[in-house]
Design brief:
By secondary structure, the chain is mainly β. It contains 2 helices and 17 strands.
Length: about 210
Amino acid sequence: MLVIALCVQLVARVLCEVPPAPPQDIHVDNWLLKWTPGTEDTDVTYTVKYSSFDSEKWINVPACEKISSTSCDVTSLKAVDELGCVKLRIQAERRGLKSSQVEACSNHNDSCTPVVDLTAQPGSLMVHLSSDNDLAKEHADHAKHRVYLGKEGEKLKLFKDSVASVPINGLQEGERYCVKVQYIYLGYPVGLPSCTKCELIPKTSKSL
């Protein structure tokens, strides 16, 4: 009877197991990937994957495979892509169960990630983008910025592909809107997107 009881408990535990929460705040700063655990459990490991330009294949980063730490140096990936840029994802795992994969962004503006500045006005938002970057210089009009937009707390959606800065009109005053931007080349995403930035759309001043 004891054996049966233990077996029932084991089966119940397995059936009740759920994948770990995905990591959060995943960002790269000067080729050091960092993240915050999505759970307080200590038996969680993380695997980082990369994808090169115009490739749909995701490959494990050897130095960042099933590690327990919350950071990993990905400098070695500089040489694996023809444009010198890669996309990164990370996944948590606990006892064989895996979380969803989450895309990394970059706080370090370089040739692989756009420089993004926002200016908010009543009803509108200006996304300031620079065409003075290595990708644009080398590939002219084939290189663009892909702008994603959404209200704070909502999933960002593709807004527009553009070479230069993008004005966004018709926004709701008093709401916070968020933007992230990624380089694209020949329609394919290149490198890491900028980390999300948000601005409050001010209300129109009432004249006396």
